[in-house]
Amino acid sequence: MDIDMEYNTTRNHLTMREYGRHVQKMVEHILTIEDPERRQRNAHAVIELMGFLNPHLKNVEDFRHKLWDHLFLIADFSLDVKSPYPIPTRETLKAKPHPLPYQKGIRNSHIWAKIWK
User: Fold this and answer.
1) What is the mean pLDDT of residues 61-65?
2) What residues have CB less than 8 Å from 81, skipping those under 6 apart?
3) Of 43, 48, 79, 116, which residue is most buried, by most CB within 10 angstroms?
4) 52 vs 48, 84, 109, CA distance in Å?
């Protein structure tokens, strides 16, 4: 009996570990589906599975939007399906937030708070 072992070092990179290898393989399979309707149904099924795997996301505002963003991230932004949300790009998800302006007079406020008590 010949058993082929598949080691993590021979597998492709796991994009999002919280969903696991099986979800990544499902997304890779969706990328190979040529029928747009079947591809769309499979994408919705994977979104449902991703929601079950991470129930803590249900407390996050717009958790479905986050799941769709994760789906496109796992697919390396090459998935051709219709999303109910704006489809993210690599640039929008990797963009750094704008720096917050600091007020000049707040320096060492933790010290002044102790003094004025």
Assistant:
1) 86
2) 30, 36, 39, 40, 43
3) 43
4) 6, 19, 45
- Can you tell me the distance from the alpha carbon of 32 to that of 79, in angstroms, rounded to the nearest whole number? 10
Q: How confident is the model at residue 16 (pLDDT cuts 50, 70, 90)?
A: confident
**Residue whose pair of structure tokens reads 């505002």 in the numeric block:** 61
97: tokens are 């937030």
Rounded Cα–Cα distance for residues 101 and 111 (Å): 21
Q: Which long-range contacts (CB under 8 A, 24 or more apart) does 89-96 make?
A: 93/69
Read off the amino acid at residue 94: K
- Per-residue tokens: 59: 């407390």
